[in-house]
Structures are given as structure tokens and as C-alpha cells.
């Protein structure tokens, strides 16, 4: 294993020094989108193999859905690649420029990060999105996808390499770890700091633990999404009902799905029935505190302490009564994962307090947490949602996959 991984690392480090111009990058991406269409039968066949394996393993239906590539999803993938091709090249852009009294002209210019390792769940579109974003931002990428998606990922990565080769660009810009062995992840985290500049782990608690235990490579964590929707006392009932329903149930398995609803104690009596009934009628299981139990006429299970830190990723929600906006902010900053949190209110002052004080990388007002997505932000696609404290935070697209350097020009100035 170590020989295989080191070779991948060496290849990546070497190719990361190559410069590819924007025109060629876009040519590669367009060719890739074309090849995905041309080879769709082989992609669907590989995907069926993965689905069969996952079904035999007893994977839940929402995870099978996440794994599946059908005609519609393939079109979505191709559209996303074409969008990325149309976006401005993020490399070599002058981000700032200024002149100093000492005679220096200083420019801050964007550069690729180098080599990026990405560990991600069994969602094959991530292979195409991440490969396209990393390549367009001038980085080499090492991909380690989820085990259930291995056959689909393999062909998606192979087709990217084919489009690189046919455009006469080094194929090693994209490398795929062709193994289900989790030891590969440990190796990336602990033994590849000479080859990998940053690792992006996309996943849940298990992966977090692993990363914390092993990593000596810098990390941009794309971890659990314990997202909240806070319904303030000044919320509009109709809006609160619609937004909360969408935030919880539109797609329950994504990291931007709301897991906990916080309700201002002054509106619980009036709001809890219409809002929670709509969720319950759509098969959502509700864990709530004692105060809610008193007013809610439907079925409610008693919430325990662990419910405030549980990412259900299913049709289950926890609901808590809070005293006011400050109480909601404290709850979110204690139990949240700095992913996405939203307030529903007509009161701009309260909204502003919430937006400024939650630690979340995406803070929202009157908006469904399900909008936590690079595509929805206009980034063409995303590597995922960074839950880091340090930047980049929130959706990671082209603009977040670059670093920078200072370029300084003078006419022979020397320092006094
Ligand atoms: N912030 C973001 O952008 C995103 C966050 N997520 C989060 O991911 C989770 C859902 O995805 P899920 O599939 O359950 O995630 P997992 O954490 O189970 O898996 C994600 C990836 O990590 C690998 N992995 C998991 N545990 C280990 C380990 N102990 N050692 C080595 N590799 C490991 C998996 O490999 P294997 O296939 O072998 O299990 C897989 O490649 C949720 O918590 C969700 O919020 C998901 C997408 C985006
Ligand atoms: N940000 C993406 C989803 C990313 C995500 O959470 O993926 P997953 O957990 O694999 O379903 C979206 O909103 O579609």
C-alpha cells in the first residue's frame, strides 16, 4: 500500500508544478462533459454494480438515492462541468494592488494551492465536481471516494484522465485511489504531508474522529451539518411553516438539512401545531421538550440531551423551546457544527443580532438551510461546505481553492 500511495503522491506533487492555460483547461472540461455523455452506458452499468452491492449491504434508500446516477443526474453533472468551464479562471488574478510611500508596488496575486486530497462519501457526482473544480483552479487532486461508489467513481475519474490525455495535458492532475481500504485514508492523513498540501475530509462523526487522531496534513473540514432553524416570536407563520418544512424534508440526507428547530417560547402555543403537524403528516418523527409536549396535539417523543447533538440525516427532527434570540444563539453555538443556521423573523434588528452572533459558516435570515450549496451560491459546483473556523468557510468552489502570493516591484529600492 505505501508504495502505491507514495507513487500517487509523487505524481501529484510533480504535476502540480505544471501550468495549464485557461483555454486548455476549459477544453479539457468540455471534453470531459462530452465523454460523460458518450460513455453513459458504461457509467450506468458501473453504477448498477455499485447499487447492487449497496442493496445487498442493506444501505438505506436515501443513501441508495445519493449513490445512483441516472439520465437526469448525469445531465446535472454535465451542466455543472460546463458551468465551471464558463467561470473565470481563479488563478493569476490580481486580488489587490497598492503603492507604498517607500516606492514599492505590491500586488496580491492568486495561485493554486498545489495538491489537494479529498475523502468523500458515496456520492459519485462529487468525483466529477471536485475533479473539475480542482483542475480549473490549477491544483492536482487525489480522490478517495466512498466504498459503495467505487465502480462509478473509477469510470468517472478514468474519463477525466482520458480528456486530459486527449488534450495533451498530464493525466496525473486527477488521481483516484482505487481501493476501499480505509487504511488508505489513514496513510493520506499521517504519511503524505510531503506530497499533499491540504486534505478535505467530507463526512460524519467516524471520519472526524479519524482525522483528529491521525492528521498531520492541514485540513479543510467538510464535516457534519447539525443545522438549526430558529423561529422567532416575530416570525410570519406561513413563512415559518414553509421554510421549516423545506429545511427539514426537501432532502433529509444532505448536510444542509435542518436537524433541530428552535422555537421562541412566546409563539410555541400558536405556531407549534401548524408547523409540526405539517412535518408529522409527512412522516417526520418529532422529539420535543416538555413545553412543546404541553401544547402540541400530535405525536411527540421526549427529547433527550443527545438529541441536541444528533445529525439524524432522516425524517426525524428535534424541537426545543428557547427564551429569546440570545438563548437560540447560545444553543447553536454550543451544539451546532458551524455549518448552516437560519432565523425566521420579520424583525430586522433580531435578524441582524442572529446573523452577527452565530458562529455558523453560513448564517441565514428567512431562508431554508437547504440552500447551503455551492451551485446555489453561483459557484458552478462545490467541493462541499467547509465547517472550519479558519477560511475557507461555507461552500468551497473555484475561488476558495486558491492561495496567493505577493508580487513586489520597485526600481531598485533599498530599505533604510
Ligand atoms: N460539510 C459537507 O460539505 C458535507 C458533509 N457531509 C457529512 O457526511 C456525513 C454523511 O455521509 P456518510 O457517508 O455517512 O459519511 P462517512 O463519514 O461515513 O463517510 C465519508 C467518507 O469517509 C470515509 N470514512 C468514514 N469513516 C472512516 C474511517 N474511520 N476511516 C477512514 N475513512 C473513513 C468513508 O469511507 P467508507 O466508504 O469506507 O465508509 C467515506 O469515504 C454527514 O455527517 C454529513 O453531514 C456529507 C457531505 C458534505
Ligand atoms: N451541498 C449539496 C449536498 C452535499 C451533501 O450533503 O451531500 P450528502 O451528504 O452526500 O448527501 C446539496 O445541497 O445538494
Descriptive key words:
2 domains, binds the ligand N[C@@H](CCC(=O)OP(=O)(O)O)C(=O)O, 4-stranded parallel β-sheet, GPR_dom, 416 residues, Aldehyde Dehydrogenase, Chain A, domain 1, alpha/beta, 7-stranded parallel β-sheet, Aldehyde Dehydrogenase, Chain A, domain 2, binds NADPH dihydro-nicotinamide-adenine-dinucleotide phosphate
Description:
Belongs to the gamma-glutamyl phosphate reductase family. Catalyzes the NADPH-dependent reduction of L-glutamate 5-phosphate into L-glutamate 5-semialdehyde and phosphate. The product spontaneously undergoes cyclization to form 1-pyrroline-5-carboxylate. This protein has 416 residues and is α/β, with parallel strands linked by helices. It has 2 domains: 247 residues, Aldehyde Dehydrogenase, Chain A, domain 1 (3-Layer(aba) Sandwich); 145 residues, Aldehyde Dehydrogenase, Chain A, domain 2. It is built from 14 helices and 16 strands. The protein has a 7-stranded parallel beta sheet, with helices on both faces. Helix 3 packs antiparallel against helix 7 and helix 10 packs parallel to helix 11. The longest helix has 18 residues. The mean pLDDT is 96. The structure holds NADPH dihydro-nicotinamide-adenine-dinucleotide phosphate (NDP) and ligand VHF. The ligand N[C@@H](CCC(=O)OP(=O)(O)O)C(=O)O binds next to loops.
